[in-house]
Structures are given as structure tokens and as C-alpha cells.
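Give me C-alpha cells for this 96-residue protein.
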Amino acid sequence: MTLASRKRLVAGSALLLIGLANLGMFVNWLETLGVLAWARRVCDQYITGTSVTVIAALLILLPSGTVIAVCAQRCKVCDVLLFRRGKYCSECGSRV
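Here you go.
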């Protein structure tokens, strides 16, 4: 374990403890704003067991790269990842 990774571990642990210490205060602030009551009301009215089951099934069945695969493509020549919808590769100039 290098010194940099130890520093990251200590800093991450300290930030986690600070975040957990302030979590109760954040929840109380949301309660005073009425956000939690609104969320409960929305869940009771609109989210049924069937919708939760369908959402969970979609999250399990869809592969993780599906969203990226729709927006991005790879060049067949240089194998670079292209995020835009052009006809030509920006790296090697070949037609995509």
C-alpha cells in the first residue's frame, strides 16, 4: 500500500465520519421543509408493487453498457470510442 493510497483512505474515512455525523441534521432539515412527507405521499399514491418489480427487473436484466452503447460507438479501424454522431472517425479519418 503506497503513501498516496493510505492518505486517500484516511481522508475518505474522515469524510465518511463527518458525513455520518451530519446525516441526522440533514434529515431533520428535510423534515422541516416537508420533503419527506411529500415523498411518502408520492410513494403511497403512485408507486405500486408492480412498478417496483418492473423497475427492479429492468435494472437486473439490462446490461450496464446499454445507455452508453446507444450514445457512443467505436471506430472499426482504430478502436477509439466516438461520442458524437459523425460519419467519420476524428482520430484516423475512416468512415464509421
